[in-house]
Design brief:
The complex is a heterodimer of chains A (108) and B (438). With 108 residues, chain A is mostly helical. Chain A is built from 4 helices and no strands. Chain B has 16 helices and 11 strands. The radius of gyration of chain B is 24 Å and the shape is globular. Chain A: One of its GO terms (cellular component) is respiratory chain complex III.
């Protein structure tokens, strides 16, 4: 019981933080806000084409909204439940591969 | 200073003695051992005491098993060898193999794909571990496949026109199955998805279609390799028996030469006729024996004195069919006479006893020489195992060649010559006759 309340609390806390962060009002997803370093660029290369297209659309829309100093109507905001991490797992994989390469080069 | 001069010869002496002791005594009766495991994997080993061990894992996954909608997937499969699998990344595979000095290759023909690794005996265990990682649980990540596209393009760009002619010959002769090209069509590059490759691999790289051979190590080791493989046991690819249709395909490529492959139906692998036809192909001729020498083979005599040209007999045997014929490269202006003369010889092959005898000796030399090279031997044993389930040593094959009588050979030849001629041609085809004009 206690465990369940903690989980619920945790969930609602992260939801509150998510809504406070504001990027969802522009229709962005969490992974759209990643800083594009080399790992992320490599991960983007590995994504299927249509996922990248959707990401680019969301970003251009966000830039447009930001220029116009406006936000999306509330029903179009990204919901916490709908925000899937489409890029992070791939970035983790890329990082792992880079670490493996660096470890090898340290040893030999 | 004086101590140094004393030390050097001493060390040298010791090391040479050490090597002499380490060299294993050559076994006079090295025999090929073979068996079939409970999961139907064929396992063979030849412990010849070689300091280098060669291990081949072969599968029935050649181009004949390609579905008609995904032609070229077998080429993709062999070019994808060494990419990241579930167990190891492409980076680690290549670095670790390089670290132990092992050499890995993947090659394929119409029937099989061969994954071969060569390593010195003391590094064999590590090399086997990585061979296992390469072969089992292949993942074919889409981005790695698209990074691999230049390799496919290079493969195609580097194809000699003679190979194209023989490839077209197969397509003309068998249409589907064995007629599938060994190489991916340029338009298909990048269009075969990771999923279809995955499906092809899952249905062909199965234990029941696998053979493991080791040259230079024990049968137990080969069994261990076969058992360590993690292969899917799902549905298997169906292969339809390839029937010989006969026909002609031409590819106009320009240039100064015409490359023509002519053939009739041969015999399946393992049959006595296929050996007889292999002798006949050698007897037809293989170009001059000495460099820049005169070409005195029956084939060259039939074509006559038309200036420089190259002509060789060829014979290929597959599990249920075969081709017997010749390959010809001639200057474009002489193509009509040369191809007509070669076609006439193929329709009515008359080989003298001397030519047959020379053919036998040349074939024996070829079989025995190829057996000296461990990788070739490992792959040929694997293919024999997958074709017939029985392995003949090179010496046994040489003995079988000796036992062929002239009548066996002429019988096989006249049987083959009854079939329709097929033709594949590439290069400058301006003056190359069509197959019905032969």
């Amino acid at each position: 019981m206690a465990l369940r309340t903690t989980a619920v609390l945790c969930n609602s806390l992260s939801k509150w933080a998510y809504n406070l962060s504001g990027f969802n009002k522009y229709g962005l997803h969490r992974d759209d806000c990643l800083y594009e370093n080399e790992d992320v660029q490599e991960a983007l290369r590995r994504l299927p084409g249509h996922v990248v297209d959707e990401r680019n659309f969301r970003m251009i829309r966000a830039i447009q909204l930001s220029l116009q100093k406006s936000i999306l109507p509330k029903e179009e905001w990204t919901k916490f439940e709908e925000d899937k991490l489409y890029l992070t797992p791939i970035v983790e994989q890329v990082k792992k591969e880079r670490k493996e390469r660096e470890e090898w080069e340290k040893e030999y | 200073m004086s101590s140094k001069t004393l030390a050097t010869p001493l060390i040298r002496h010791v090391t040479t003695r050490g090597y002499a002791q380490a060299a294993p005594a050559l076994k006079r009766d090295a025999r090929i051992q073979s068996s079939v495991l409970p999961n139907k994997t064929f396992v063979a080993a030849l412990d010849n005491g070689s300091p280098v061990a060669r291990v081949t894992i072969a599968f029935k996954a050649g181009s004949r098993y390609e579905p008609q909608s995904e032609l070229g997937v077998a080429h993709l499969l062999r070019s994808a060898a060494g990419l990241t699998t579930k167990n190891a990344s492409a980076f680690i595979i290549s670095r670790k193999l390089a670290q132990i000095g092992a050499s890995f290759s993947a090659s394929g023909d119409r029937e099989f794909i061969y994954y071969t690794v060569e390593a010195t005996q003391n590094n064999l265990q590590q090399a086997l571990e990585y061979l296992n990682n390469i072969v089992s649980n292949q993942e074919f990540r889409p981005w790695e496949l698209s990074d691999n596209i230049p390799r496919l393009q290079y493969d195609l760009a580097a194809l000699p026109p003679q190979v194209r002619a023989v490839d077209l010959l197969h397509k003309a002769a068998y249409r589907r199955g064995l007629g599938n090209s060994l190489f991916i069509a340029p338009k298909k590059i990048g269009n075969i998805s990771s999923e279809s490759l995955q499906h092809f691999a899952a249905s062909t790289l199965t234990p029941g279609r696998c053979a493991v051979t080791i040259i230079g190590n024990s049968q137990e080791n080969a069994t261990l390799v076969a058992q360590a493989l993690q292969l899917p046991t799902a549905s298997e690819a169906q292969s339809n028996p390839s029937t010989y249709h006969g026909g002609e395909l031409r590819k106009e490529m320009g240039g100064d030469l015409a490359h023509v492959a002519l053939a009739v139906q041969g015999a399946p692998a393992g049959s006595p006729q296929s050996l007889a036809l292999a002798v006949a192909a050698k007897a037809l001729g293989n170009g001059p024996i000495t460099k820049w020498g005169a070409d005195n083979t029956p084939l060259a005599k039939a074509i006559g004195n038309i200036g420089p040209f190259a002509a060789a007999g060829f014979n290929v045997s597959y599990s249920d069919n075969g081709l017997f014929g010749l390959v010809l490269s001639v200057p474009k202006d002489e193509a009509t006479t040369a191809v007509k003369a070669a076609g006439k010889l193929l329709k009515n092959p008359n080989l003298s006893a001397d030519a047959v005898k020379a053919g036998k000796n040349q074939l024996k030399l070829q079989v025995l020489t190829e057996a000296e090279e461990g990788t070739t031997l490992a792959e040929s044993i694997a293919s024999q195992g997958l074709y017939t389930g029985v392995v003949k040593s090179p010496a046994e094959i040489a003995a079988a060649i000796d036992q062929l009588s002239n009548s066996d050979i002429s019988q096989a030849l006249s049987n083959a010559a009854k079939n329709k001629i097929s033709m594949g041609a590439a290069g400058n085809l301006t003056l190359v006759p069509y197959v019905d004009e032969l």
